[in-house]
Amino acid sequence: CFNSGSSWNSCDFETNLCRVLPEFNLHPGWIRRNGQSGMGPPYSDHNGNESAYFLSLSSEMQSSSAALRTSVFLPTDEEHLCQIRFHYWVSHMSGIFMVGLQKHSEDTVTNIWQVSGELRNQWNVNTITIKSTEKYEVIFSVMLETQRQGESVAIDDITFSEGC
């Protein structure tokens, strides 16, 4: 179901080209970096590659939230649900990492998945399935109370199925 070879359906952040997240480098709070950047953990991407890129929260963020918004997706149907697979890192005691859905007729973002901070320094992977009868956007967001040395939040390899 996942076509990882297509830049249309996948964001591995190796380049600045990521069609589903058209402006990820313009989202304040996020920084595109690799494990060799000297900015603390994670020290590699989810494959263990120190020179491969991912997005992480900028350490300049003292306390607040940062969001990453996709382009607009068309409504799903029974045969083509939208599945989004992503790798995430939340080694942050006060951090909450959320995925939200914003339908075009609604002003609010509906939270469809979240994980709260822990100090396990490891990449995790998750897949969420979205059904929507109208156009929608998906928002990856992080909320932090405080930011301490050695704590971080990162995201890598967001893959979108054909139904998105």
TrEMBL record:
<dbReference type="InterPro" id="IPR000998">
    <property type="entry name" value="MAM_dom"/>
</dbReference>
<protein>
    <submittedName>
        <fullName>MALR1 protein</fullName>
    </submittedName>
</protein>
<dbReference type="GO" id="GO:0016020">
    <property type="term" value="C:membrane"/>
</dbReference>
<dbReference type="InterPro" id="IPR013320">
    <property type="entry name" value="ConA-like_dom_sf"/>
</dbReference>
<dbReference type="InterPro" id="IPR051560">
    <property type="entry name" value="MAM_domain-containing"/>
</dbReference>
<dbReference type="Pfam" id="PF00629">
    <property type="entry name" value="MAM"/>
</dbReference>
<feature type="domain" description="MAM">
    <location>
        <begin position="9"/>
        <end position="164"/>
    </location>
</feature>
